[in-house]
């Protein structure tokens, strides 16, 4: 005998409540009836669930303005914690006491709502113990909020939350304010952590050396420092591989129902590039130079260093290693040919790079020399053959077209792919490389003893001094920029090109019976 509609509704309601008590996203759906989450809200909520249960203890969430991060992190998550973990003590800070109080009010309103009380009837506000800066619950929970520098000393927290610690770009660009906030974090906020406490930082990135950038740099340089899980959600997807956390293809909008690509492109058109990268892409760069930081670059080794080995060993910030088979990587040579061997002219830079299946880029060799024009093709082919590169990609505007043609005539030459900057500035071309470096996705080769190879120091010096302006030595950076720009193409076509390039290098037949068509090699000019 089938159940009545009323009993079915009751069963469905009980199921919704059960799910809402153990899953943050379902909790938000239940307590905020008009909530329509996008996939990225689910990604944030999963990380917050992991934080709530202690599966992770340090979490950073970066997302563009108005994309719903504060609703989850600062309004619903604290209320959910006080229901699912009733005796939790929460300390929440924002850039001003006023904003922190607003968050406090919203958390209290959520707890007092009938929907919340149906889920967690044992959690309610303790009478006489609730105001604009703090409240307690009858079940032993506590919530304290303050602006930066506000009164949180003398109190401990199980969950420490920071939401948008800089009020605006002016604050973030001030070295004095950044230093003040870092000191406040270390001497006040961080010291409030109880044993086993978790820390959550959510913000829109304003500057490479904002608090999040400083803590990530510390994590990379000291394995004893707090190790952060970082969820970065740019407004427009980059060229990374789609994943469960971010399933987008390159160029897709983060929340197309609210901010479609056309709206984001309009916002981009109204921003200077640095502001767009910071606010929307969560990849801040420095104005006027110093776009790269030395400590962003990680290190890797070859398992058999005397010859190109069978594996690359990637050194991780926590002291562990990750091994990647060389045969699973796509290796290319990139170059920026110069016109003369005279010292006052630009040198010819030649870089050898390997792309791993997970989208990391390994710099295997980056050199810059003043070479006679006739020597450049042989050097390019020698570099390619030394590492078994799939192809050579070189800037080919103006006189450099002749270099590409001459390179193809050298014995043993793999495919040659000509690149054109089409008038785009050096900084514009370098921005994807800057973003990857900042994300810890670029590795520099060391010797078997863990020492940097001789070329690394000059490469890092040039990266650190890179401005993208005329007159700045940037030839090595150009090879890196081109390598990063080639990564989406490599990911899409690499396996086919590897086989075809081997055939081209060894002068194999290209008859119709061949499985690999050498005509598919990337030898035509490539435009951005």
UniProtKB/TrEMBL annotation:
Region entry Disordered, spans: 502-528
Protein name: Uncharacterized protein
Pfam families: Terminase_6N
Superkingdom: Bacteria
């Amino acid at each position: 005998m089938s159940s009545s509609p009323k009993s079915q509704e009751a069963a469905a309601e009980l199921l919704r409540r059960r799910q809402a008590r153990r899953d943050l996203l379902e909790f938000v759906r239940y307590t905020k009836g008009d909530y329509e989450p996008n996939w990225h809200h689910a990604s944030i909520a999963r990380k917050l669930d992991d934080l709530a249960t202690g599966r992770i203890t340090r979490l950073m969430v970066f997302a563009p303005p108005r994309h719903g991060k504060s609703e989850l992190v600062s309004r619903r998550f604290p209320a959910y914690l006080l229901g699912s973990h009733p005796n939790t003590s929460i300390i929440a800070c924002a850039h001003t006491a006023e904003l922190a109080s607003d968050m406090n009010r919203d958390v209290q309103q959520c707890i007092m709502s009938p929907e919340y009380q149906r889920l967690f009837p044992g959690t309610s506000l303790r009478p006489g113990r609730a105001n604009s800066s703090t409240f307690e619950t009858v079940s032993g929970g506590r919530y304290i909020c303050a602006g930066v520098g506000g009164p949180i000393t003398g109190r401990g927290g199980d969950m420490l939350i920071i939401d948008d610690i800089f009020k605006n770009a002016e604050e973030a660009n001030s070295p004095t304010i950044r230093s003040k906030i870092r000191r406040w974090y270390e001497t006040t906020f961080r010291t409030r952590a109880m044993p086993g406490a978790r820390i959550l930082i959510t913000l829109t990135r304003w500057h490479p050396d904002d608090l999040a950038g400083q803590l990530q740099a510390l994590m990379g340089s000291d394995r004893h420092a707090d190790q952060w899980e970082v969820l970065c959600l740019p407004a427009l997807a980059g060229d990374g591989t789609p994943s469960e956390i971010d399933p987008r293809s390159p160029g897709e909008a983060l929340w197309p129902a609210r901010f479609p690509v056309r709206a984001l492109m309009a916002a981009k058109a109204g921003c200077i590039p640095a502001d767009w990268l910071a606010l929307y892409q969560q990849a801040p760069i420095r104005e006027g130079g110093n776009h790269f930081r030395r400590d962003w670059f990680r290190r890797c080794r070859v398992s058999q260093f005397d010859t190109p080995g069978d594996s690359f060993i990637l050194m991780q910030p926590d002291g562990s290693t990750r091994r990647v088979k060389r045969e699973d990587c796509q290796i290319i040579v990139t170059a920026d040919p110069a016109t003369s061997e005279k010292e006052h002219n630009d040198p010819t830079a030649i870089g050898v790079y390997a792309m791993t299946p997970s989208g990391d880029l390994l710099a295997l060799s980056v050199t810059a020399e003043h070479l006679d024009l006739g020597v450049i093709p042989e050097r390019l082919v020698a570099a390619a053959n030394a590492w078994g590169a799939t192809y050579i990609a070189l800037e080919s505007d103006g006189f450099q077209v002749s270099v590409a043609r001459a390179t193809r005539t050298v014995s043993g030459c793999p495919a040659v792919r000509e690149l054109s900057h089409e008038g785009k500035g050096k900084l514009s071309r370098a921005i994807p490389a800057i973003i990857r470096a900042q994300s810890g996705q670029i590795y520099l080769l060391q010797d078997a003893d863990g020492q940097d190879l001789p070329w690394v120091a000059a490469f890092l010096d040039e990266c650190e001094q890179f401005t993208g302006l005329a007159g700045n030595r940037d030839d090595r950076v150009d090879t890196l920029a081109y390598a990063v720009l080639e990564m989406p193409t490599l990911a899409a076509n690499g396996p086919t090109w590897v086989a075809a390039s081997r055939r081209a290098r060894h002068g194999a037949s290209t008859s119709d019976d061949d499985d690999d068509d050498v005509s598919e090699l990337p030898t035509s000019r490539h435009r951005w």
